[in-house]
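Everyone, study these two lines:
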Amino acid sequence: MTPSRVSVTEAAVALIERMQALHGPLLFHQSGGCCDGSAPMCYPRTEFRIGQRDVFLGSIAGCPFYISGPQYEYWQSTHLTVDVVKGRGSGFSVEAPEGLRFLIRSRVFTDAEWAELQAAGEPPRGEQQAS
């Protein structure tokens, strides 16, 4: 079985479920950049447009998770875990009013995981269906 590229903590799942109850279906997008641009952003699915260069890493808590193409080039050998901490995130991400923010915890794939991912090929780009 191919290793996952993205996972989620139980605390983040609880917040995602609360946000889904308020906003409906959601998606995550990880862009590059500084400040809030380096945090995973959570949006209602109908309010964020996925580009053809965005890379689909998988789904977390029923939400598709994308990363910008250039950021993927930097982080492709890294497993991402979405977590949540106290604090104010970006005003555009749905959790901002909650006094909590999503963040990424990361680790480099093991040699065995990386070999499996390389054998599986590149992840898809552009909008995908959530699983």
